[in-house]
Amino acid sequence: MKRPLLSTAALLIAGGGAFLAFNSMQGCRPATTVAAVQGDVASKVYVKPGAYDEFYNFVSGGFSGQLAVYGIPSGRLLRVIPVFSEDPQSGYGYSEETKPMLTTTHGYIPWDDSHHPELSQTDGVPDGKWCFINGNNTPRIALIDLGTFRTKSMIEIPNCAGNHSSPFTTGNSEYVISGTRFSIPMGTEEERDVPIDSYRENFKGTVSFIKPEAETGKMSIAFQIITPGMNFDLSHAGKGPSEGWFFFSCYNSEQAYSLLEVNASQNDKDYVMALNWKKAEEYAQAGKGKMVPGKHVTNWWNDETHTTESKIVDQVLQLDPRELTDLIYFMPCPKSPHGCDVDPSGEFIVGSGKLAALIPVFSFAKIQEAIAKNDVEGDFQGIPVLKYASVLHGEVKRPGLGPLHTEFDGKGNAYTSMFVSSEIVKWDLKTLEVLDRVPTYYSIGHLSIPGGDSKKPWGKYVIAYNKITKDRFLPTGPELTQSAQLYNIEGDKMELLLDFPTIGEPHYAQSIPADLVRPREVKFFDINENQHEFVAKGEKETKIERRGNEVHVWMTTIRSHITPDNIEGIKMGDEVFFHVTNLEQDWDVPHGFAIKGARTAELLIMPGETQTLKWVPNHVGIVPFYCTDFCSALHQEMQGYVRVSPAGSKVPLTAVTRSFEPGS
Ligand code: RUQ
Ligand code: CUA
Prior knowledge:
By secondary structure, this protein is mostly beta strands. It is 8% helix and 42% strand. The chain starts with 5 loop residues before the first helix and ends in an 8-residue tail after the last strand.
């Protein structure tokens, strides 16, 4: 969502949904766009040359499908990690080794839309090991290794459409969750080929529990729970007393399937779904589920072969809460809830109804009581609906307009983003009193506090991720930069410190002290452990080999030459595979590889690693190749030639580096 349309607002008013009108408008502008920045804020974000930031900030690129890494408090962009989209800088998605990472049951997908980074946890606290992120469009979950800052594994989610309420983690990353946004018909072809207006009978949702293997980061689907048809928006795991539970915001309890902006905004309340995952795990292990069709791909990056390993799985274990009746419960939640956040103590669950004029806070203790007493007001498609008044801790009154997401500082305060009124509102978890509010520029979506959705937030800052930046930065044509804003939250009043531009749409983000990430940092790959099928561990191991019309070149790079650099005997019709090993054993010395006419990007090969570029020559003649990464004083000398001859030519296949006497 970038720029809500005013015409939509008009349509809504005409449609009788006047209460909705504000939702469609651009956020109310704070009167002055130059925020009152007071005193010496610059020194609070200034990281002097050569010094490091205190926090890593992992920010989803939204529709770019990538994950960006910033330093906080400086807001400096450190890296864009390619996850769901190809990356011309590193060759991710172009090299033969990484292509399978982006391959699904729908084939190769060069792009996806990613929303929510979630750091892995130990004892309910981010541990700096992994970062998960969801692919929305073609449902997948990715795991990024924070040793290498690379996508380590990716799993496709079957029986899912719009993987939005994902990938939130349990307290020890036993599981990450994947909740379907769109409900869809599932099962056999016949069961899936149904009229759209049979939504109520045929459309269902699922939540899948993904298990990451602690040692390897390989992911599999442990089980999947089928749910009534609705839209599932966001989720969070319980903690402390509510450990073992998951909470999901659900909208479209109207079960509309057309013009949702009006038709899915009719009910006064939708739901927060409480799911007992410990119970589900027990049932799964006791064989209470059934295997159903659910073809999906699971991809894993092997750091020794420097290659993706892929596996196709045909079925998933599904649990049905209509039979296993103590798995899920609905709690009424005003009105089209978006965020669903659990406070550090684990007692309070905040449902942010984006069309509601208040924020309901549920009490886990009361939920348990209501379940024990069967204190229900009815059911939704066979699932019990607990009484609102019985599960409510209380409501935050008049918080602002368009509450979306809430994070916590660990000192008893909650911070909620207000999309429509463009502000962050700080309130007290116990008294539910509003304590402070600051404007954001503009239309804040998510916000993030370091550790702010965990058991022990580090606090210190809240960062706003805005949907609209009009007039905040130098314009860049119709598409303006996206942005984040950093606020200090150490005092009673929030204080704006910094605006910084971001890539893609900055969606959700998480931050962690750099000290927790850095002990695992990988500086280069040990060449002795390189088990790539086509590795050359030294220049003596370089060679060329023809296999029918495939030609394989074992190639090495080291400052400042490529071996071999004179290749002849390639013919039109050949497919040439350059397997390039970077022989360096030093930090920060990648080499690149590019060849004229290659219809992919170039490669960027890290020290000790082997990567493969496939090249299909389409012209007869001499074709140069070279290193694309400025690696040394003689980087411009790092080059070579391939001779391409007509099909059927008798030129022998050779690959050499020649000695050369000047003038001879
Ligand atoms: S949602 S702006 Cu995709 Cu995370 Cu709330
Ligand atoms: Cu290697 Cu430039």
